[in-house]
Amino acid sequence: MVSPRPTAAELAARLAPAATGTLRAPLDRAALGRAVTLAESTRPPDRALADEVLGLLGPPARPAVRVGLTGVPGVGKSTLIEALGRHLVEEKGHRVAVLAVDPSSQRTGGSILGDKTRMPFLATHPAAFVRPSPAGAALGGVAPRTGAVARLLEAVGFDVLLIETVGVGQSETAVRGLTDCFVLLLLAGAGDELQGIKKGIIEMADVLAVTKADGPNQPRARAHAREMAGALHLLRPPAGGWLPPVLTCSAAENTGIGELWCTVEEFIAHQRATGRFEAQRREQHLTAFRELLRQELEARFYARPDVVQALPTLEAAVARGELSLGAAVARLPR
Predict the structure, then answer these.
(1) Distances from the Cα of 199 to the Cαs of 70, 74, 189, 195, 235, in angstroms?
(2) Are the C-beta atoms of 141 and 169 separated by less than 8 Å?
(3) What are the phi and psi torsion angles at 186 (to 5°)?
(4) Distance between CA atoms of 82 and 251, rounded to whole angstroms?
(5) Which of 220, 211, 280, 224 lies closest to 250 in space, CA to CA?
(6) What is the DSSP track for 131-166?
(7) Distance in angstroms (rounded) separating the CA atoms of residues 287 and 47
(8) CA–CA distance, 247 with 228 (Å, rounded to integer)
(9) What is the pLDDT along the chain (334 residues), one digit of tens a residue?
(10) What phi, psi does 128 have (nearest 5°)?
């Protein structure tokens, strides 16, 4: 038997206790999961319901700290986030939500979504929530509705959001528009030195950390951190007086995790003191609005009957080489 679709008021009522922001408040994981699913949906009615839930919950008393973490495959993002999240929950008393964006298959559209298995502590702790999301066809390292989900989790009462992206790439810039601090994870001795110092990704990073700095890999990790610190001085001047530090850490030995979070806090404090935190938040709101507007306009365009009728013919002509791309676009209904 299919359960009835909950109303926005019902979902908001089930999520309201968690929105008090105290660790003693119970978290209705089923209701939160349902609300996140609605926020991630491509169906306009689902999105409208999610927006209604968000409106009923109201704005958070204080914005959550949003931290983006990225790095090449194999750098240990999920393992590090598990260790960092545990530190935040157990030692700092934070409520931590993790948005783990998994790459989607370009052939089948599917995603593994296995991050919960790599974060067993955070996946079950009452003060934490882990949500794997498929990237779909979106570029930029985040899923199309990551911003909407982040706002929902913030409204429910999580005060730290950790956003794990699909991996470093030339197009991975969207996550920068969602977060307050962008952490680039590096791996020494794995052939990623040249990848790590690409100007585009370095310009976005606020903190850099060389992972797996344990056992016999410690000297190599420290050497790599020194090399990257030197490269930063050559690649760009400090933004607003902040030169991104390069740290070393190990999730396996739980070393450097506290120092990493202290550095994130120092950066956030610097941003607040210079007024850049509030300015960046305003820009995030505008970015989210423009992205939602783009998605809405695109959906409306493809739903138009005249476009539905004309598009197959134009696509067939382009595929056969009978019509240039520009000419095909020009013939689309206005």
Answers:
(1) 15, 21, 20, 9, 7
(2) yes
(3) -120, 155
(4) 8
(5) 211
(6) EEEE-TT--SSS-TTHHHHHHHHHHHT-SEEEEE-S
(7) 18
(8) 10
(9) 456 778 999 999 998 866 665 545 668 888 999 999 998 887 888 888 999 999 999 888 778 999 999 888 888 899 999 999 999 999 999 999 999 876 543 343 333 444 556 789 999 999 999 988 755 444 433 445 777 888 899 999 899 999 988 655 544 566 777 889 999 999 886 554 444 445 567 778 899 999 999 999 999 999 999 988 888 877 666 667 888 999 999 999 999 999 999 999 999 999 999 999 999 889 888 887 887 788 789 989 999 999 999 999 999 999 999 999 999 999 999 8
(10) -135, 160
| pTM of full prediction above 0.70 | yes
Q: With contact defined as beta carbons under 8 Å apart, do 209 and 260 qualify? A: yes
How far apart (Å, rounded) are the C-alpha atoms in residues 267 and 246? 13
CB 306 within 8 A of CB 333: yes
- CB atoms under 10 Å from CB of 253, counted, come to 14
Residues in Cβ contact with 210 at an 8 Å cutoff, skipping those fewer than 6 apart:
185, 186, 187, 188, 221, 222, 224, 225, 228, 246, 247, 248, 249
List the structure tokens of 17.
């206790």
Q: How many CB atoms lie within 10 A of CB 101?
A: 27
Give me the residue label for tokens 């110092």.
197
Q: Where are the beta strands (DSSP E) in the chain?
A: 65-71, 96-102, 128-134, 160-164, 181-186, 207-210, 246-248
Q: What is the DSSP string of 269-330?
A: HHHHHHTHHHHHHHHHHHHHHHHHHHHHHHHHHHHSHHHHHHHHHHHHHHHTTSS-HHHHHH
Question: How far does the chain reach from its first CA to its final CA, in angstroms?
Answer: 46
Query: Tell me, what amino acid is at 279?
Result: A
Amino acid (one-letter) located at 265: E
Please tell me the distance from the alpha carbon of residue 184 to that of residue 205, in angstroms, as a whole number: 6
The two three-digit tokens of residue 319, written as one number: 């595929």
